[in-house]
Amino acid sequence: MQYFTSDTHFYHKDLLGMNDFAPRPFPDVETMNQTIIDHWNARVTDHDTVYHLGDVALYFTHPAQLSNQQVCAILCQLHGKIVFIKGNHDSRAFFKYLAAHDPQLNGQPKFEFHDVGVLIKYDHRQYYMTHYPMMMGIVKQIINLHGHIHHYAVNIKENLNVGVDTPETAYLDHPVPFGAPFSLAEIEQMVQGKADDFAKRQ
Fold first, then answer.
1. 56-69 as b/e: b if 16+ CB within 10 A
2. What pLDDT is attached to residue 138?
3. Domains in the chain, ordered, with CATH?
4. pLDDT tens per residue across span 135-191
5. Which SUPFAM superfamilies match (predicted)?
């Protein structure tokens, strides 16, 4: 199966607490990190692929290799193949470190990296995955899955925020635990829910 997420921001202590930008009511980053790991692994298996649309972590140490090691240790605990799309907080040096320390999965690399975006097709629809929301103009059957804006939504029906803080889970008929990547079925439900919402406004 394919899953989608963004903006995990592992170790980002400044996001902790209740706020309008990225509400994360955890007492510390260790609890936040473990919550994401647990909820991710509860639904993803090692036969699945997760598209991570950027901003994996925000953790700076001197030397930088120490933070790279600790974030890599978390990513190695996560089930599935992970396809990374570079976010504004993801450095090429960090991606190079992950590539050099890839734990392998089912005899293949566990990690895959893209600088800008990835396009996949599903059921006569195209999903263009980027970190930043894309203003694509008038399109048919193309949806931009993105992150970056945390607890906000783009006021365009063809854009869907799939980050862990997204408010667009309101279009789902069930709750999704914090940090659990969204399934394709959930993405489809959110896309349809947003389209229906916009149709009501006409």
1. bbbbeeeeeeebbe
2. 75
3. 2-200 (3.60.21.10)
4. 887 788 899 999 999 999 999 999 999 999 999 999 999 999 999 999 999 999 999
5. Metallo-dependent phosphatases
